[in-house]
Amino acid sequence: MSLDLIVGIMAETVRLTLLISAPVLLVGLVVGVVISLFQAVTQVQEMTLVFVPKIVACMVTLVAALPWMINLLLTFTQNLFNNIPNYVK
């Protein structure tokens, strides 16, 4: 197993992690900014106003993107398992 192969697997793992986490993180970021703007405009400084919409939006995004996320993970895992004989050489 060469160093280039290990670095390639690690790079693919990091790329996959970023792809899988991006939709939920981006939705959480957008909802947080929108709620913060709403609070700044209306001068409502309620702390729970931030968390509940953000949690709901992240859960909806997670449910919507879950099949895509699982497909990416399954493809990556199958690729790793299929290439085990190549890694041992």
Biggest beta sheet summary: none
Mean of pLDDT: 92
Strand content: under 5%
Low-pLDDT parts are none
Fold blueprint:
Elements (H helix, E strand, L loop, with lengths): L2 H40 L5 H35 L1 H5 L1
Helix pairs in contact: 1-2
Considering the chains and any ligands shown, give keywords for the structure:
89 residues, mainly alpha, elongated
Commentary on this structure:
With 89 residues, this protein is mainly α. Helix content is 90%, strand content 0%. The radius of gyration is 19 Å and the shape is elongated. The model has no long low-confidence stretch (mean pLDDT 92). It starts with a helix and ends with a helix.
Q: What does this entry show, briefly?
A:
The protein is mainly α. It contains three helices and no strands.
